[in-house]
Amino acid sequence: MEEFYSIQGEGYNTGQAAYFIRIGGCDVGCHWCDVKESWNAKVHPLTEVDGIVARAAAYPGKAVVLTGGEPGMYSLDHLCKGLSDNDICIFLETSGAYSLSGAFDWICLSPKKNNPPQESVYNKADELKVIISEDADFEWAMDQEKKVRPDCLLYLQPEWSVHEKMMPLIVDFILDHPQWHMSLQSQKYMRIP
Hints:
About 25% of the residues lie in helices and about 25% in strands. By secondary structure, the protein is of the alpha/beta class. Strand 5 (about 105-110), helix 3 and strand 6 (about 125-130) form a beta-alpha-beta unit.
Protein backbone atom coordinates (compact mmCIF):
# COMPACT_ATOMS: atom_id res chain seq x y z
CA MET A 1 0.00 0.00 0.00
CA GLU A 2 2.74 2.45 0.96
CA GLU A 3 6.35 2.79 2.04
CA PHE A 4 7.92 5.58 4.06
CA TYR A 5 10.86 6.32 6.34
CA SER A 6 9.95 7.51 9.81
CA ILE A 7 10.28 6.74 13.51
CA GLN A 8 8.57 3.77 15.14
CA GLY A 9 5.98 5.24 17.46
CA GLU A 10 4.61 2.21 19.34
CA GLY A 11 5.69 -0.63 21.57
CA TYR A 12 9.16 -1.86 22.43
CA ASN A 13 10.93 -0.32 19.43
CA THR A 14 9.49 3.18 19.98
CA GLY A 15 11.84 5.94 18.92
CA GLN A 16 13.83 3.89 16.40
CA ALA A 17 14.27 5.05 12.82
CA ALA A 18 12.63 2.55 10.49
CA TYR A 19 11.41 2.07 6.95
CA PHE A 20 7.71 1.24 7.04
CA ILE A 21 6.23 -1.18 4.55
CA ARG A 22 2.44 -1.12 4.82
CA ILE A 23 0.98 -4.11 3.02
CA GLY A 24 -2.51 -3.72 1.56
CA GLY A 25 -5.21 -6.19 2.46
CA CYS A 26 -6.90 -6.99 5.75
CA ASP A 27 -10.00 -8.92 6.69
CA VAL A 28 -9.66 -8.55 10.47
CA GLY A 29 -11.87 -5.43 10.36
CA CYS A 30 -11.21 -3.52 13.58
CA HIS A 31 -13.85 -0.81 13.88
CA TRP A 32 -11.28 1.64 15.27
CA CYS A 33 -8.60 0.95 12.63
CA ASP A 34 -6.84 4.17 11.64
CA VAL A 35 -5.74 2.78 8.24
CA LYS A 36 -9.01 1.40 6.85
CA GLU A 37 -7.84 2.37 3.37
CA SER A 38 -5.44 -0.58 3.65
CA TRP A 39 -8.23 -3.17 3.88
CA ASN A 40 -8.99 -3.61 0.17
CA ALA A 41 -5.85 -5.03 -1.44
CA LYS A 42 -7.35 -4.63 -4.91
CA VAL A 43 -7.05 -0.84 -4.80
CA HIS A 44 -3.30 -1.01 -4.19
CA PRO A 45 -1.10 -1.98 -7.14
CA LEU A 46 1.24 -4.91 -6.81
CA THR A 47 4.78 -3.80 -6.06
CA GLU A 48 7.96 -5.65 -6.99
CA VAL A 49 9.59 -7.05 -3.85
CA ASP A 50 13.16 -6.41 -5.01
CA GLY A 51 12.28 -2.74 -5.52
CA ILE A 52 10.89 -2.51 -1.98
CA VAL A 53 14.09 -4.04 -0.62
CA ALA A 54 16.26 -1.62 -2.62
CA ARG A 55 14.31 1.40 -1.38
CA ALA A 56 14.50 0.22 2.24
CA ALA A 57 18.24 -0.40 1.95
CA ALA A 58 18.82 3.16 0.67
CA TYR A 59 17.99 4.70 4.08
CA PRO A 60 20.47 5.03 6.95
CA GLY A 61 18.15 3.36 9.49
CA LYS A 62 18.57 -0.40 9.16
CA ALA A 63 15.19 -1.49 10.47
CA VAL A 64 11.95 -2.21 8.66
CA VAL A 65 8.46 -2.36 10.14
CA LEU A 66 6.18 -4.70 8.17
CA THR A 67 2.65 -3.65 8.93
CA GLY A 68 -0.70 -3.41 7.25
CA GLY A 69 -3.38 -4.15 6.64
CA GLU A 70 -2.48 -7.62 7.82
CA PRO A 71 0.92 -8.81 6.56
CA GLY A 72 0.21 -12.38 7.66
CA MET A 73 -2.18 -12.78 4.72
CA TYR A 74 0.81 -13.14 2.38
CA SER A 75 3.99 -15.13 1.99
CA LEU A 76 6.74 -12.89 3.28
CA ASP A 77 9.63 -15.30 2.65
CA HIS A 78 11.14 -13.49 -0.37
CA LEU A 79 10.75 -10.04 1.19
CA CYS A 80 12.30 -11.13 4.50
CA LYS A 81 15.22 -12.83 2.74
CA GLY A 82 15.94 -9.71 0.69
CA LEU A 83 15.84 -7.46 3.74
CA SER A 84 18.01 -9.84 5.78
CA ASP A 85 20.52 -10.08 2.94
CA ASN A 86 20.88 -6.30 3.28
CA ASP A 87 21.45 -6.51 7.07
CA ILE A 88 18.09 -4.90 7.81
CA CYS A 89 16.30 -5.83 11.05
CA ILE A 90 12.71 -6.86 10.41
CA PHE A 91 9.95 -5.94 12.84
CA LEU A 92 6.55 -7.51 12.14
CA GLU A 93 3.26 -6.00 13.34
CA THR A 94 0.49 -8.59 13.09
CA SER A 95 -2.88 -9.53 14.53
CA GLY A 96 -1.74 -13.15 14.31
CA ALA A 97 -4.94 -14.13 12.48
CA TYR A 98 -2.81 -16.06 9.95
CA SER A 99 0.13 -18.44 10.24
CA LEU A 100 3.38 -16.58 9.67
CA SER A 101 5.88 -16.96 6.87
CA GLY A 102 9.27 -15.28 6.72
CA ALA A 103 11.96 -14.74 9.35
CA PHE A 104 11.73 -11.78 11.71
CA ASP A 105 13.95 -10.11 14.28
CA TRP A 106 10.95 -8.95 16.32
CA ILE A 107 7.28 -9.91 16.27
CA CYS A 108 4.67 -7.64 17.79
CA LEU A 109 1.41 -9.54 18.20
CA SER A 110 -1.61 -7.27 18.52
CA PRO A 111 -4.53 -9.71 18.89
CA LYS A 112 -8.06 -8.75 17.94
CA LYS A 113 -11.19 -10.25 19.52
CA ASN A 114 -13.13 -10.48 16.25
CA ASN A 115 -10.42 -12.61 14.59
CA PRO A 116 -8.14 -14.11 17.28
CA PRO A 117 -4.58 -15.23 16.61
CA GLN A 118 -3.59 -18.64 15.30
CA GLU A 119 -2.25 -20.72 18.19
CA SER A 120 1.11 -21.06 16.40
CA VAL A 121 1.71 -17.29 16.54
CA TYR A 122 1.55 -16.90 20.32
CA ASN A 123 4.88 -18.70 20.91
CA LYS A 124 6.62 -16.57 18.27
CA ALA A 125 5.61 -13.20 19.75
CA ASP A 126 8.34 -11.07 21.33
CA GLU A 127 5.78 -8.42 22.25
CA LEU A 128 2.06 -8.60 23.00
CA LYS A 129 0.33 -5.26 22.37
CA VAL A 130 -3.33 -5.14 23.33
CA ILE A 131 -5.39 -2.15 22.23
CA ILE A 132 -7.71 -0.90 24.97
CA SER A 133 -10.88 0.77 23.74
CA GLU A 134 -13.33 -0.38 26.44
CA ASP A 135 -13.29 -1.89 29.92
CA ALA A 136 -13.76 -5.46 28.63
CA ASP A 137 -10.41 -5.23 26.84
CA PHE A 138 -8.54 -5.61 30.13
CA GLU A 139 -10.00 -9.10 30.59
CA TRP A 140 -9.07 -9.89 26.96
CA ALA A 141 -5.51 -8.71 27.67
CA MET A 142 -5.19 -10.98 30.68
CA ASP A 143 -6.50 -13.91 28.65
CA GLN A 144 -3.97 -13.20 25.89
CA GLU A 145 -1.14 -12.94 28.44
CA LYS A 146 -1.70 -16.60 29.39
CA LYS A 147 -1.05 -17.71 25.80
CA VAL A 148 2.32 -16.05 25.10
CA ARG A 149 5.77 -17.11 26.30
CA PRO A 150 6.78 -15.98 29.80
CA ASP A 151 9.49 -13.71 28.33
CA CYS A 152 7.09 -11.95 25.94
CA LEU A 153 6.88 -8.21 26.70
CA LEU A 154 3.37 -7.03 27.56
CA TYR A 155 1.94 -3.67 26.42
CA LEU A 156 -1.41 -1.96 26.73
CA GLN A 157 -2.14 0.81 24.26
CA PRO A 158 -5.15 3.11 24.41
CA GLU A 159 -7.20 3.27 21.24
CA TRP A 160 -6.59 6.79 19.96
CA SER A 161 -10.19 8.04 19.74
CA VAL A 162 -10.77 7.25 23.44
CA HIS A 163 -7.22 7.65 24.77
CA GLU A 164 -8.13 10.39 27.24
CA LYS A 165 -10.83 8.20 28.80
CA MET A 166 -8.83 4.97 28.77
CA MET A 167 -5.43 6.32 29.84
CA PRO A 168 -6.27 6.63 33.58
CA LEU A 169 -7.79 3.13 33.54
CA ILE A 170 -4.66 1.71 31.91
CA VAL A 171 -2.45 3.47 34.46
CA ASP A 172 -4.45 1.95 37.33
CA PHE A 173 -4.36 -1.48 35.70
CA ILE A 174 -0.57 -1.38 35.23
CA LEU A 175 -0.06 -0.27 38.84
CA ASP A 176 -1.95 -3.42 39.90
CA HIS A 177 -0.37 -5.63 37.19
CA PRO A 178 3.24 -4.37 36.87
CA GLN A 179 4.20 -7.02 34.33
CA TRP A 180 2.35 -4.84 31.80
CA HIS A 181 3.77 -1.66 30.24
CA MET A 182 2.21 1.37 28.56
CA SER A 183 2.47 1.86 24.81
CA LEU A 184 1.37 5.13 23.28
CA GLN A 185 0.95 6.07 19.65
CA SER A 186 3.74 8.59 20.05
CA GLN A 187 3.78 9.23 16.28
CA LYS A 188 0.44 10.99 16.74
CA TYR A 189 1.86 13.21 19.46
CA MET A 190 4.91 13.95 17.26
CA ARG A 191 2.66 14.46 14.22
CA ILE A 192 4.72 12.19 12.00
CA PRO A 193 3.53 9.34 9.77
